[in-house]
Amino acid sequence: MIKGLYETHVQVSDLEKGIKFYTEVLGLKLAHRDETRPIAFLWIAENKEFMLGLWEQKENLQPRHFAFSSSKEDILSYSVKFLEDKSLKPYNFLKNGSIEPMVFAWMPALAIYFNDPDGNQLEFISILEGDGKPELGVLTYEEWMKQH
Fold first, then answer.
1. Which helix (H) or strand (E) holds 124?
2. Among 43, 61, 79, 129, which residue's CB has the most CB atoms within a 10 Å radius?
């Protein structure tokens, strides 16, 4: 029955600024802006595969987390520069000061994090080949590769 996740929604403090961030900075496409309520829908990929809803919330903003699918190659060779070029601060899951992508060994998946202007925690993630090794926890990609 379930074939994937089609859409998710996050709160933003200013809808105009949220639309600008997600379209101009991250490259999503505006799909629809509802003129009867403070919400906009954005296409994440081509062919209407995935959608992000932005809801303006002036008070009691509740930041959320979600991840964008990416390729291993893009995360390893391009993600940090992409984020820094957009004045965004990449960080890893451990929040240990490193901007190096990390591997969640249980999946396994490679990931790097960053925040939107409202503190929503965003992530670029790529599932890696092979079986997970939960006993390894979270480690650098280099450490992961040494295990294989």
1. strand 121-127
2. 79
Per-residue pLDDT tens over the stretch 30-83:
999 999 999 999 999 888 999 999 999 999 999 999 999 999 999 999 999 999
Q: What CATH code is assigned to 65-146?
A: 3.10.180.10
Task: Tell me how far apart the alpha carbons of residues 19 and 81 are, in angstroms, rounded to a whole number.
Answer: 22
Name all contacts of 28-32 with Cβ < 8 Å and 24+ positions apart: 28/52
CATH number of 7-56: 3.10.180.10
**In the block, which residue shows the tokens 């929040």?**
95
Tokens of 121: 């925690």
Burial of 66 (0-12, 13-18, 19+ CB in 10 A): middle
The residues spanned by each domain of the chain are 7-56, 65-146
Q: Is residue 43 classed exposed, middle or buried when 0-12, 13-18 and 19+ CB atoms within 10 A define those classes? A: middle
Task: Confirm whether 7-56 and 65-146 share one CATH topology.
Answer: yes
